[in-house]
Structure prediction request, 719 residues.
Amino acid sequence: MQVELNSIWRVYNLDGLGDGLYRVLQLYIREHIVILFPLFESKTLQRPLKLNIDLLNEAIKVGNAQLSSYELPYYQLQSEDNISESYLVKRDEKYRLIIELVSDPNFLLNLVERPRSKTIPIHAKAHNTYVQNIYRALNLYWKYGQERNALLPSYMNSGGRGKSRVAGVTKRGSPIQLSSPSIEVPEGVNTTERDKVLFLKAMKEFGLKGEEVKFSRVYDKMLKEYYTEELIAAESESREALVPNYRAFVYWAKKLVPPQIRIHKQTNQGDFDRNRRGLKGSATDHTEVPGSCFELDATVLDVHIVSDFQRNHVLGRPTVYCVVDKESRMIVGLHVSMEYASWRAGRQALINSFTSKKDYCAEFGIEIDEADWPCNHIPQRLLCDRGEFICQDAENLAVPLIGHLSIAPPYRAELKGIVEHRFKILNDKLVHELLGTTKGRHYIRGDRDPRLDATLTLREITTLLIDEVLEHNSSIFEDLAKQSTLLIESGLSPTPLNYWNLHVKAQRHALSRADEAHIRSRLLPTVKVTMTGKGIRLNDQMYYESDHADFETWKVIARNNGSWKLDALVDHDNSSFIFVRLEEESGFTRCYLKKESANFAHRHQADILYFGDWIKLENNKDKPTKKSIERHQRRNQVIETAKEEAALAPSLSSKSERTKGMKARRREATLAQRVEDVEDQLRQAKPDIESDLPSEHLGDKKKKIISILKRKRVNDNES
Prediction:
């Protein structure tokens, strides 16, 4: 290793030199000598030392001399413009004393070869100063790098800076400033060493117990605990208590307890790691390209929603799942439901992340191109919470599909800072402006209940969130420009969409794809549906059909020979379709909702469950009414009257006589009924004429009517 001027070397076990740091002042190649200056923290003056270059090189080879560094004082590391004029004058005065010596190339060689040389005494006499003054200036010059600023005055420890002084009798500190001169100001007391001990004890006892406590509270408790006798005596003697004032306590408490210790002791480890620790870098430091890591998290939306079937029924606050690409800030997946945060809802968010968004947006009436939200990929790693994905289902189902599943520690939300910040963006830009919003705060007495303003349904909330996600993916984030040069090279604005597209196009990503049916079969649980003559039945309410060539044949078989069970995958976000294993050894086929079940199209599972619950409640409320009871009683009365009249009829000789001549009696009854119907019609049409006719005319009219009816009956029989 090459030995250079002003380089610093740490020396061990080298003959003629003590262990420590040395600065190389000069190299004399012809004499094979290197001049070293010891960098010892000592007030005594040091002299340069000579060492054979070959000996130093050998020590470097065997490791007894290692290249090191020496930190310069802060006051030397500043430009000329920031140094006061008085300091520059003093520096230049010292430099003029030694400039002739340090400019001589043979000065150091003569100094180490001839320890009793008269060069420095003669030089001191010529400048009318002391020899020690020359040596002090040379020591500073050699110690701090052989440059002019090494001679700057060092006042950093002048006046005992940083040292505590023992309090005397005279009161220190400024007195209390009052505007009224007539009011007498108490003199107060100096803070003694005993007071400092009590200050530190009070801070440990009352102020460093795992929660943030105000200094005023600690001061009050300290006086009551440790200055009880003085306070009681001062009150009884009607004088000012001789205790340290609050300002003195705060000053010494901050000095005796370093701020880093006070911050640690006034919180728990979880809160410190989340909100108080020093930041080590950016959230994207460990991700290189899009797809390296997706972050998944859930939160309860700050807005109440209503039922899609009955808008006057409030359902509460839905849960939203967000999946975000950590590198590009792209929101790649979304799921909104009434489910609580769980694996059941989390897997729906994963399915949405891994599948096409064009069809998903179309279900909510939003028409987009694939390029508007081109996220239907599987990441290299998924980072999520313990709550949803620390179960066995997630390990068995998600890990084979994704590859690596990372579970964040408890109470460490900052480890998923990207997705957490997306929730804040969605709240600030959308949710907190909606009807029924809680605005992210607890109910305050006097506030209007936000549930009374709830208006939007789950489907409408999802539609608004999709639009806001599309807006977010096209918004500018300045940090993206710092992560990659592709945006600058292409001249595109730093948006998540541009960042994603550019890296995918340049093949700088860690994304992969899978078939939709494969993704659903991996993540969704298998449920049983029934093949019936009407189609595939789910939940006894919805029927589905398929484009399979044999589907109509299976319906015929099911209607005539009985139904059978099939395996299906149900998407809780959209009831318009399901995936069914139609044959025992086949994959899952997409089946669509039939027209007769159109009321359930595009419904969320929460709406389907609400409908089922509503049916149950209506059935439970189905009790006989007053009119229903009256109809029941009237029916019983008619039956009883008929039984009584039947009992009064003359008895018959045999059972066959009761049924004999049924057809003839039926014809007579029919004719009699027709006569009665005609009479009723005539009576309603000409009530006045009929009332004036004699009885014999009415008899003739009846005969004529009967004759006509007989002819009609004969014609009926002939036909």
User: Anything to note?
Assistant: The domain at 294-505 is CATH 3.30.420.10 (Nucleotidyltransferase; domain 5). The two ends are 130 Å apart (CA to CA). The first strand starts at residue 8 and ends at 11.
